[in-house]
Amino acid sequence: MNSIGEACNDLKKDYDACFNTWFSEYFLKGQTNDSMCAPLFKVYQECVKRAMKDQQIDFHEVEKNILGTNNERKPPEKPS
Predict the structure, then answer these.
(1) pLDDT tens digits for the chain (80 residues)?
(2) Greatest CA separation found in the chain?
(3) Cα gap 26→37, rounded to integer Å
(4) Helix runs in 1-62, H state only
(5) In sequence order, which residues have a C-beta less than 8 Å from that of residue 62 and are 6 or more positions away?
(6) 0.85 cut: is pTM over it?
(7) What share of the chain is helix, strand, coil (3-state, %, to 5)?
(8) CA distance 62 to 52
(9) Residues 44 and 12: beta-carbon distance below 8 Å
């Protein structure tokens, strides 16, 4: 899956590769320190934030808690 911003795709691939290595080689073996990918994540996150701003997506809107609240969209009721 590509990133929200085309300029971020390579950064996402690098972070995803790091995360997958950390998850399979460390986390699943009980080592929960995830700092090895933190620098890549920070750079990727900044790129995503820029892409969101460029696409006029409000970052705070994305962070809203919706699931489990009255704002969550419910599927239409099926007729009886």
Answers:
(1) 899 889 999 999 999 999 999 999 999 999 999 999 999 999 999 999 999 999 988 877 777 788 888 878 777 777 76
(2) 54
(3) 12
(4) 9-25, 38-54, 59-62
(5) 52
(6) no
(7) 60, 0, 40
(8) 10
(9) yes
